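Board work, copied verbatim: Exostosin GT47 domain-containing protein
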Amino acid sequence: MWCPKKLQLPSCLSSFSYTLAFLIFIPLVLVLVLVCTLGPQSSYVLSFSSSSWTWRSVGLLRSLTSYEEKDQHLQVVGLVTFNNSAKDSFSNRPGEGVEDIWKDEMNEGEKHRNETTGIVKRYNRLERVEAILAKARSSIREAARNGSMISNHEDPDYVPQGPIYRNTNAFHRSYLEMEKKFKIYVYEEGELPIFHNGPCRSIYSTEGRFIYEMEKGNMYRTKNPDEALVYFLPFSVVVMVRYLYVSGGPDSRHVIGRTVADYIHVISSRHSFWNTSLGADHFMLSCHDWGPHTTSYVPHLFNNSIRVLCNANTTEGFNPQKDVSLPEINLKTDDTIGIIGGPSPSRRSILAFFAGGLHGAIRNNLMQQWKGKDQDVLVYEELPSGESYESMLKNSKFCLCPSGYEVASPRVVEAIYAECVPVLISDGYVPPFSDVLNWNAFSVKVAVEDIPNIKKILMSISQTQYLRMQRRVKQVQRHFVMNGPSKRFDLFHMIVHSIWLRRLNIRV
Ligand SMILES: *[C@@H]1O[C@H](CO)[C@@H](O)[C@H](O)[C@H]1NC(C)=O
Ligand SMILES: *[C@@H]1O[C@H](CO)[C@@H](O)[C@H](O)[C@H]1NC(C)=O
Ligand SMILES: *[C@@H]1O[C@H](CO)[C@@H](O)[C@H](O)[C@H]1NC(C)=O
Ligand SMILES: *[C@@H]1O[C@H](CO)[C@@H](O)[C@H](O)[C@H]1NC(C)=O
Ligand SMILES: *[C@@H]1O[C@H](CO)[C@@H](O)[C@H](O)[C@H]1NC(C)=O
Ligand SMILES: *[C@@H]1O[C@H](CO)[C@@H](O)[C@H](O)[C@H]1NC(C)=O
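↓ predict structure ↓
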């Protein structure tokens, strides 16, 4: 269930084995130094096989809970605005590498230099951040006005084009701006395994993969919180459910919400950033069904922060203007090689396919209408023996993706990987990357009340239209692929891009 070797971090060790590693490591280095200086012929290779970590009781909870009952300091405050009169308290302290960070912006001068008086103003943190964001916004807006079917920006890797995008040019401009300017600070507070760690396989893999990618720290991450445009709260709801949740206990789910509340309390008392924005420039990420519920223990987290969630259910408070819909991908191995691709449309003999458990009302409805009733719309609770799920996907023209116990379904990405046109059957679900992708171009939406009409709806799509959609499914694949290490325009970058757009508070 855990991260592949190539993604494995030194921090995968628990603090216990960490200390142990240190105790062994330091003498080892000393010995090595001696050996190297005394015996120049010998060469040593240190290989660290990361030992599996062990769960160390709930020690961290006690250390975090060492304050009296929360809640009173978590009152709801209205709309979030940065208090500009409070900004002086966040001015730069001298000699903190400010010049370095801002060299780039400083070169452009005009923002900082008053031409009449000749006075060069040093921006404080909030002013600098706002200046960067404002500049990015205006360049994206300009690109948006210039929208065309193909982006007019140059790019060695990929040039967005065609109707799968809402606006090719604005997306590309925004993506390039993000690469240049976006800086994410990852809070260091919190102990393994609940923090800085997550599942890299299973249905919740996107949660772990994202956390690992952030923790590895070579993309977007900054170690200087004053330089960050956004702050990441690196906890894993999936791991909390695994270690803190006791099924049926009197407290069952509360312990998870309280852990999150404790964490925010620690963050907000140690750093100024949370209080300054009341959480608006902070984000959390979870693929677990309970992700949204967990955030409700901290009103500012729920109402102000960017919540990156697989369970993007608008009836449960998911707000597409500030929250991000995270794809759910059921990764069983470390690689996506072999899962991606499929036969051409002419070799797909099945009109529509679904197989899966009877989870929730929508699936119930689907099963009642279609299970075992049609030769073209194949709906199974359990696949007939001898049939493989993957080959069914690859032999189908359309793949049905009904919501289960939560709105998101891993089938959406499975369909995209198998080059099968996804059919979204859900209520109140915001599909991933809707901020830049035009889902109508490469998927079909069927309202829950139209489940009986699925066949009619799919049959009414002309062959030409189908071929177009299927081609676009192949085109959009790159945005849903998780690479290790990450590649431009892939899933990791797209998630970061959605966060970037929320931080800019702009629509493309
Ligand atoms: C803004 O901050 C100043 C100084 O800290 C404070 O006096 C004022 O009440 C704050 N205003 C708002 C709207 O919070
Ligand atoms: C430059 O300074 C003058 C005098 O303080 C002020 O009136 C003017 O608004 C300033 N210009 C800018 C662009 O801030
Ligand atoms: C907008 O389009 C025109 C003509 O194609 C081009 O000259 C200009 O540079 C474009 N502007 C942006 C911001 O892409
Ligand atoms: C943030 O606000 C909380 C409650 O209002 C307060 O207890 C905490 O000390 C503040 N944090 C900082 C860093 O000032
Ligand atoms: C979010 O804000 C609304 C309106 O201010 C409030 O009614 C609601 O309780 C808040 N949500 C949470 C989880 O606190
Ligand atoms: C979305 O949220 C609503 C309100 O809580 C709930 O009734 C519905 O079942 C949820 N949808 C799914 C598919 O879980």
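Residues 345-480 form a domain with the Rossmann fold fold (CATH 3.40.50.2000).
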